[in-house]
Write a structure and sequence with these properties.
The chain has seven helices and no strands. By secondary structure, the chain is mainly α.
Length: 146
């Protein structure tokens, strides 16, 4: 999926125009969501992504950093990130976020795929996919207890 398509997906999900120049939190989160999804799912540089918002590469770097450091701690933001990431990667129905167990077949498939990754890709997988997903599951479990 290309960045333009990701932009349209985020705008549809959030109901916001990402080019709107404002510092309202909802727009900051939406832009951070867009830039983070693009960095994860495309090969575009920070400078290339800056064309989607009237800023420069530093704006994109700050937005991605702020997204992971601050906004990703909010349950609804991470749910949206995971939902859109699954749509982008065409796996929206592979794992049910409300399920707390994974089939042995899926685990075997994942392990086989991970064996073929280089070290940097494994680190990215853990940092940007597994940790956020585990955080989401933990939050879901805590919600169901309350």
């Amino acid at each position: 999926m290309k960045s333009q398509e990701i932009k349209e997906l985020v705008e549809k999900e959030t109901g916001l125009d990402l080019k709107t120049r404002t510092r309202e939190t909802s727009y900051l989160i939406a832009r951070g969501l867009f830039f983070s999804l693009c960095r994860k799912n495309t090969i575009e540089t920070f400078d290339q992504l800056s064309k989607y918002y009237s800023g420069d590469h530093a704006t994109v770097v700050h937005s991605v950093s702020k997204f992971y450091d601050t906004y990703s701690k909010e349950k609804n933001v991470m749910r949206t990130f995971e939902k859109l990431d699954k749509i982008i990667n065409g796996i929206e129905d592979v794992i049910n976020p409300n399920a707390y167990s994974i089939s042995p077949e899926l685990v075997t498939m994942l392990v086989d795929e991970i064996k073929h990754l280089d070290e940097c890709d494994v680190i990215d997988l853990i940092k940007f996919r597994i940790k956020p997903y585990c955080l989401m599951i933990k939050n879901n479990k805590n919600e169901s207890r309350n």
